[in-house]
Amino acid sequence: MTRFRLSLVCALISTALPVYAQNLQELYEAARGYDAAYMSAKAQAEANVFLSQEAKASILPTVNLTANQQSGQFNVIDTTAPAGTLNNRTFVNSGASLSASQPLYRPSNLASYEQGKRQADVAREQLLTAEQDLIVRTSTAYFDVLNAQDTLTFVQAQKAAVSEQLASAKRNFEVGTATITDTREAQARYDLVLAQEIAADNDLRVKRLALDQLVGKAQVQPKALSTTQLPNLLPNDVNAWITQAVDSHPQIRQLRISLEVAELEVAKAEAGHKPTVDLTASYAYQDASNGTTVSAVTSKTTTGIVGVSMTLPLFAGFFTQNRIKETLALKEKVRNDLEAAIRTVSQATRAAFFGVSSGLGQVKALEAAESSSQLALDANKLGYQVGVRINIDVLNSQSQLFQTKRDLAKARYDVLVGGLKLRQANGTLKAEDIAPVNALLAK
Asked: Are residues 241 and 205 part of one domain?
């Protein structure tokens, strides 16, 4: 009961506390510490770094220590005794050996070491890709909530305007200056807007839940835009963005590293024809103070050996030849994958660039359309009052104005998110790129 009361008090306190709006930078930092997909990619990148260190072991010396101890007893017939007396003998043997080996010439091991170093580079590119994905997902979820809020606000404003028009149509019908058609048209439009309000409210709830889940916080309230001035697209040259993409995109850099790894794999396969040379050393100590199972002679021996061993492969059933052909084919595959990635990234960058450029033009057009729609609504209201316009004209003008306002708000958000997606498409997106977008939000 006490625990229940405590939880109830905590719930009441959390409900009473004010909900502070958060900007995009704050929510991105929260997502970095909570998002499971990003945390998984981060852990995988760390594992790949340690994996790259494992390959270094192939060129370093190996040292092994071995120790043993044996005990037992055996019977020895004393033939010098009259009746062949049995003599029991107990023995304890112990020993230890230390061995070491250092590769002197192993081309395959050296290639594996070089491959391991490149695995660390691949891990960094993979983590960068995950970071870019998280930035875009957080920004998209953030502005989805703002867009849903605006949509609900505009629908509610339209509902109030239609409600006012409905009341006006009813009054005019009662005094005989309007027909029942005006009233029914206004009622139909009001019912339609009411349905849109329900849908907009549900969409806002879903978008907020998605953002909460992404950042690991409850009742997140994103800050709205504080300005309608959007940043220009710089550089305003699609070829400059594509050039950056070919040089900087993580997928392309990762495939270039994979091509180097494939070349080293060919070298490893070719090493199958080459000799290997190792430096070996060992030291052993054996104590047989009470003899052994085969001898009663006591002994203590120490042995030290230093040498160089060489192995020259002569024939392996054509395994090496076929392995070389396999690695050459795989190398060609990676080369083609790299070329395909360059083409895909270039196309995606081009599409993202024109998307942002078109979005900026669309924002300007919708800003002009918003002003024109407002003037048209004012004119239709005046015409309705003097009797040269009917109620449906006013209702249509209202719908056009609020639809334009919704489209304009969404277009602004799309441009901001599209700018981040453009940088993701050409591989230059960093956490610092959130700052310019964050500066456009309310303080």
From this structure: yes
Residue 347: both structure tokens together: 């196309």
Give CA–CA dist 396/51, Å, rounded. 66
> What is the pLDDT confidence band of residue 168, given thresholds at 50, 70 and 90?
confident
Q: Name the amino acid, one letter, at 400.
A: Q
DSSP 107-134: HHHHHHHHHHHHHHHHHHHHHHHHHHHH
Q: Is residue 1 part of a domain?
A: no
Nearest to 353 by CA among 417, 410, 416, 418: 418
Here the tokens at position 196 are 């849109």
The first and second tokens of residue 354, run together, are 């024109």
Closest CA to 143 of 256, 60, 225, 75: 225
Instruction: Supply the range of the domain harboring residue 92.
Output: 63-105+275-312
| Token couple for 377 | 């609504």
pTM score of the predicted model? 0.84
Q: Cα torsion at 394, 399, 401, 402 (round to 10°)?
A: 140
Of 7-21, 129-143, 248-262, 418-432, minimum mean pLDDT range: 7-21
Its sign, for the CA torsion 256, 257, 262, 264, is positive
